[in-house]
Records
---
Amino acid sequence: MKSWLLLAALLALTGIAFAISFRLYQKFKAHPAIQALLHPLVTGPLLVTGVLLLCGIDYSLYRQANSPFFFLLGTATVALAIPLHQQFHHIRQLASPLMATLLFGATFAVISALGIAWLLGATPETLVSLAPKSVTTPIALGIAEKVGGAPGLTAGIVVFTGVIGAILGPLLFSKLGVTDERIIGFVTGICAHGVGTTRAFEISSRCGAFSSLGLGLTGALTALVLPWILLWFF
């Protein structure tokens, strides 16, 4: 009975941490720079980590308790097809530039991650765990398991990549003078997957739809090609 109560408490902990983080995020809506740093996927995990460390609870137990949320990740990803369908008539007109951007962005994401990690002396297991860093979590975990990576490390780096993209992406686009929501959305989806897509929907539904497209195409391309490349080299 105690174990079930602990699992239920850990599941509730995730919801409580998110509610507190989201409220804090909304409170600083008038200050975009501060708000970006207080993204729920930054403050939420910090709150959860603090509680786990204070209580001496192992992460594996926390993950077991939150398995319903891991299952819902896939469902949420599929649901992104709805805004994508609504913008499909715009997407068809931009097929060629979108595909060129996809191929470059997805390839560079893998090469840059592997190159930097290799130069820093990462082990083969670490390298294959980092490779799918720009793919949404359900797909990235599947790739990591197939090629012998560490799912825990993959999940952490995927979330980190998404948070950095969601925080710095809008600021970078602003500095570069990029205002086209289609470009912002598509590039954000390629580089920052689900977390970035959430941020893109805060800009507009069109930006979110193009981010969903970038997320989906990057996930499909990476899932089909990356495991073969990694198994060949490692």
---
Amino acid sequence: MSFPKPFYRWRPHPWHGLAPGRKPPVYLNAYIEITPFDTVKYELDKETGYLRVDRPQHTSSRPPTLYGLVPKTYCGSRVGALSGEGIKGDGDPLDICVISERSISHADIIMSTRVIGGLQMIDDGEADDKIIAVLENDTIWAGVEDLDSLPTIMVDRLIHYFNTYKLAPGEAAEDRIKRAYDRAHAEKIIQASMEDYEDTFGG
């Protein structure tokens, strides 16, 4: 009996060993690091590919959606240039927030998603964009093609989370999120991040 193709004898690295998606920049793979049920922030360990405990969430705020990264993307000079002159990328894979009708409580999973927009985030002077996508073939969100089709409160919750998720109680919030943008701009960010990845790590 032959192995299916492709076949991975060992687990591939979620960042470097998986494809960005079946048809980027619209249809993407998302590797999920955190769910809305997590009170601890997990983050991909770049060396091993396993999830590492980054820190407990300092406040009662939890991510409003599933949250993770897009494989084989990198926030480098091209992504930074789309955020403004003199802005550089944060040197991490591109972040993605995934909306799903059904509750998904497990991290360390791969999801097929469809991009609808994003958030421009500047953190410590670096571009740290958050792509917003829906679970592909989701029953409720299947008709959403662009960010303006989402209920405003869902975008507001994401903005609030990313403006406050690093706060310690009693600290004042910073406006890290500069704007929300549509699918067309999200596609430019994704394409730039894939090109930044090729420049940094090779094809």
---
Amino acid sequence: MVSRVIPVEPFDLVIFGATGDLARRKILPGLFRRFASGQMPEEARIIGAARSAMDTDSFRQIIRDALQEFMPSSAKTPDLVDTFLERLAYVTVDAMGSAGWEELAGLVRKDVVNAFYFSVAPSLFGALAERLHSFGIAHDNTRIVVEKPFGHDLKTAQALNNSLAAHFTEKQIYRIDHYLGKETVQNLMAIRFGNMLFEPLWNAQFVDHIQITVAETVGVGGRGSYYDQSGAMRDMVQNHLMQLLCLIAMEPPSRFEPDAVRDEKLKVIRALDSVEPHHIVRGQYDAAEGVASYREDVDNPRSRTESFIAMRCQVSNWRWAGTPFYLRTGKRLSARASEIAVVFKETPHSIFQEGDGVSEHRNILTIRLQPNEGIEMGVTIKEPGPGGMRLVDVPLDMTFADALGPDVEDVPDAYERLIMDVIRGNQTLFMRGDEVEAAWAWTDPLIDSWTARHDVPKLYDQNSSGPVDASALIQRDGRRWRDIRT
């Protein structure tokens, strides 16, 4: 299969925080891949902006080193890298002052698409937005991209929304969540709304429950000071897992257009019941041989912040009444894996005897986000060979690398796709302000509740599936978690 690359309009993309880790690891390598694929027009330019004092040649060397470090050799050639780097410029800018802004204003062209990527701390969003206007850089066709965390709670999210709204309309603001740019996440919508097979079954009458898992093998690493103020609930559930839940549970939009899709996602968030304390399990990874505990990693021996959380959620509407959604995410677990599992109900009556094979047969649609992106449908068949009618469950597997051939490697990663969507002016895969606020309005009371109870996270072994209590959470309902596997 040969992927079809559609060039975008000429653009100037300004990356604030261009010397930071995200820009070096994801944004600039992603842009290089789009350039190498032929999607970036010759007139496109990328302008790095940061407080570090350097010239354009020094910035280009930083990005050359980043491409060398974070991209495979097969994806680049020296000539291609040199041509890409010629499109880069750099300006030293003081986000809280006036230095560098006049120079930036002179570089940004007004006759092409302008996009400004705020790859900086949220505390700088308002200052950058204000200066883009006060120095005459922004105009009606300007787009700004803001990274998570978008607020620490509802109050701060509202303040951020208000600070951006003072200078930009909602149609100019792109709140990025890289999970929504993953190929498999978008394929989830294609499966649901492009196939007659699934949508009639996508409801409480046929679906027993849904599991959403995002498991990581790494600890908090160098993010300890940030993470201990946020935890798994704020860092993962409020945004990434919430977005996945919305895409699974939403009603079919009238059209595949930004506001139509986001209207339906917002309805899901507003239909979420509050979660009772006994339906939430919080955990912290314990020390292991030669590996620090969570509290040692964050240098806080009394920390009550969770590195793991599991919960049972309920969407109270006609489609999903009575069907639980089980969410879990954590660090230092046994495998790195992200998946959504739609577990269908058993057949109403089995014509087969208990001795015919597996006593419980369920169709399970599994959407793997990472690693090995793909979709798998579990079905029950007769076990081949003599011996009568013996049943066995087997997967109908559509791993993208197998089904789509070697060209699947050319499929853009999440950041590549989302940045190109910004240039196109397509907000479908970006969060709207009211959507972010609704998610915080649901999240805040849960955090306030366990804070008021002085809840202490349960310790769990590293390289495990999390606290024992998380298994009990789902087993009380007569169900079990799927194995965390790569």
